[in-house]
Amino acid sequence: MRTERLQQEYGVQLRWSAFPLHPETPTEGRELAELFAGREAMIRDMQARLLQVAAAEGLPLRERSRTYNSRLAQELGKWAEEQGRGNEFRQAVYRAYFVEGVNIALVDELVRIAAAIELPADEARTVLAERSCAAAVDADWQRAMDLRITAVPTHLCGGKRLTGFAAYEDFLRLIEESR
User: Fold this and answer.
1) Which of 49, 53, 54, 90 lies in disulfide reach of 61, CB 3.0 to 4.6 Å?
2) For the segment 74-122, what is each residue's pLDDT rounded down to a tens digit?
3) Domain boundaries, the chain
4) How far apart are CA 116 and CA 110, in angstroms?
């Protein structure tokens, strides 16, 4: 992946932040056609672009017609980071959501994902029940609003930003421009 390559080749340190991507989505999810009503061409273009980028990066990805609320996944991700397993958890959630079509708004699914990467299932369930990482996600969401971030992914470096699925060369320019 581009970001991992940047870390290895340039010593770039990444800080992952949660973003409120369609936070109004109900637990049972929502059809993309409903979410983007009247913009069917945009959905097709978005799906095609995502599939192209994923293929170029060697990432598995399947077309999907439904989206799910990611708030609880973000909260559990903050906990996974505290356990030193944030990257593994993000990868596992990616696979569950974008490859397997799992509803990542469901507590049982998130606990299963955590257990699959050998995080304690009982602790994961407690984190979700108590919402003990909600404040950390709220802080990330507020930071995104303060920085006027409106899309994912958005990469920030030295006051400069790169939005969207950019080429590796674009990341290099971002690093150079921010020095």
Assistant:
1) 54
2) 999 999 999 999 999 999 999 999 989 999 999 999 999 999 999 999 9
3) 1-17+149-179
4) 10
